[in-house]
Amino acid sequence: ILIENLQIKGEYKLIQNICNNNKKFIELTFFELENNKIGILYNKLGEILCEIGNYSLSTKYLNKSLLLNEKNFGIFSEETSMTLTNLGILYSTLGDYKQAFNVLKRSDKINSKIYFINFKEFPKTLAYLGHTYNLIRKYENAKYHLTKSIEIYRKNIKNINQIEFGICLTYFAFFNKIMADYKNAEKLYIEAIEILEKNLSKTHPIT
After folding, report:
1. How many CA atoms lie within 13 A of 29 on its CB side?
2. pLDDT at 32
3. What's the CA gap between 144 and 50, in Å, rounded?
4. Exposed end of the chain (fewer CB within 10 Å): N or C?
């Protein structure tokens, strides 16, 4: 809970210090938890570690999470999908686009099957798939996935993760910038900034 609150506040250096100085404590704490909860917490910790740039430790925790969530919840579960999406974000950040596509497409396949249960994760996965396509210059695929992601977010505007929606808007703005549609890019960036400032802060690194 402490680390998650620090993530929202953008206190990444403090998170890094906590993780570096309390590795054994974290492992022991997870050992005491119910087995089906450990994978979920590994996923959250891996997500945060990726955000602060600790990619080796993020890879370790996310892969552990994937194994546990597949075992405890099944390969077509929300928990497995969430970890696959975070692995995709990690691999894309590291420039390993082949691996990123592999896990993001797996997540997308799961989300397509359980869409009505897991609609909050579905647009997030689509957004990161679209952004990854954008990075390798497959613009038609990028446009399709980003547009679909934003459509789902807007349709469910009252029940979505606003931070993820803000990030998705920045990806679509970046796409429009590459397409030289500067007017639409500016509009999307402004909307994203307003959402992120409201839900994070004006000084948060993501904003």
Report:
1. 10
2. 47
3. 26
4. N
- Residues recorded for the chain: 207
Output the pLDDT for position 160.
77
> What letter represents residue 11's amino acid?
E
| CA triple 138-62-53, angle to 5 deg | 70
pLDDT confidence band for 106 (50 / 70 / 90): very high
Separation of CA 1 from chain center: 18
Residue type at position 89: I
Cα 120–Cα 11–Cα 66 angle in degrees, nearest 5:
45
Band (181; pLDDT cuts 50, 70, 90): very high
Q: Which of 117, 206, 127 is nearest to 159 (CA)?
A: 117
